[in-house]
């Protein structure tokens, strides 16, 4: 990372983190010794905020409490869309019904999902991720969610736009074969998979 | 109903009720003046019990508390499948993760759903129905649920088998164009839609 920065190459950190603000995310990585600032991070919540502002949408939020500050500036009165993230403990029966009622009350429901993950692991076991709850609302309202985050194309495109770099001049580096490598390639970028983190050798195709 | 019974025609009541036992369901209808007994009712929970017994399945139950007595006789230790019904307040984040972990821990996950409804109305507003939560687990585990209840074909077939009547000699009467009329027709039965309950004139096709 330090060598990339020293070389003068442009750099963005693309994360699907939706359980914390960019501030908290950056502090964690700084604590691990990484040279990173909030302005260098592309994350689903601020990307969603941009979309909401552009389209004059007022969100009903079903997200993690720690993510709420990312949406502080937006008008949330009389909502005309639902934004769902990995809300964790906020995924209660009452909150799911609330989000559903906002959607079903709209002539053309708008559901924006901060990712489409199936599940993830925590110290106390596997947990359902935002994608599962997104599917529940999609089915109930007969609507397709707009996914913000990796591997969605607009997410990579906004990172590229922020750097002012065309896709064919950019390289994505990540550990996730679908979200990082696949998403970037779909966007016209080249991609490198690191052999750490989620890397599994079975994902390599042997000719 | 009294005239059908007096005529000597065979009769079954087919319900998708999964928030109460057949006993409670029958008492409610008796209270409204209907001549009905538990033995005349085909409902998802007992139909699921039959399937579980036939296939040696031990269920992890994610259902309404009032439905639990229907599963009293089954072995539920060391579960090898998940049965989901309209669990209402039991649809907590913790319970959904529990059911998910049972499924994802199986080599070939078996998910049995007592219906596929999207939502329904109660006095305090619209609620997500079992189908939405079924979709969440299906997506997270990359599995397709086996649906027990109307409009699934095996459900009508078991009602017919209980009466000992072939489909072409049976008529389904109901208010739901998809679950009652469509499901029965798929099964080779004729069907009559009543103009009460869920009936909406927009569902009629004008040639």
UniProtKB/TrEMBL annotation, chains A, B:
Q: Which GO terms describe its cellular component?
A: cytosol; nucleus
Name a GO molecular-function annotation: metal ion binding
Q: What keywords does the record list, in alphabetical order?
A: Cytoplasm, Hydrolase, Magnesium, Metal-binding, Nucleus
EC number(s) from the headed UniProt entry: 3.6.1.1
Q: Where in the cell is it found?
A: Cytoplasm; Nucleus
Names of the cofactor(s): Mg(2+)
Give the superkingdom in one word.
Eukaryota
Keyword presence, Metal-binding: yes
Q: Which SUPFAM superfamilies match?
A: HAD-like (SSF56784)
Q: Which reaction does it catalyse?
A: diphosphate + H2O = 2 phosphate + H(+)
Q: Keyword Lyase, does the record have it?
A: no
**NCBIfam families hit by this protein:** HAD-SF-IIA-hyp3
PANTHER family in the cross-refs: 4-NITROPHENYLPHOSPHATASE-RELATED (PTHR19288), PHOSPHOLYSINE PHOSPHOHISTIDINE INORGANIC PYROPHOSPHATE PHOSPHATASE (PTHR19288:SF44)
Biological role stated in the UniProt entry: Phosphatase that hydrolyzes imidodiphosphate, 3-phosphohistidine and 6-phospholysine. Has broad substrate specificity and can also hydrolyze inorganic diphosphate, but with lower efficiency.
Q: Which protein family is it in? A: Belongs to the HAD-like hydrolase superfamily.
Q: What is this protein called?
A: Phospholysine phosphohistidine inorganic pyrophosphate phosphatase
Name the species this protein comes from: Nestor notabilis
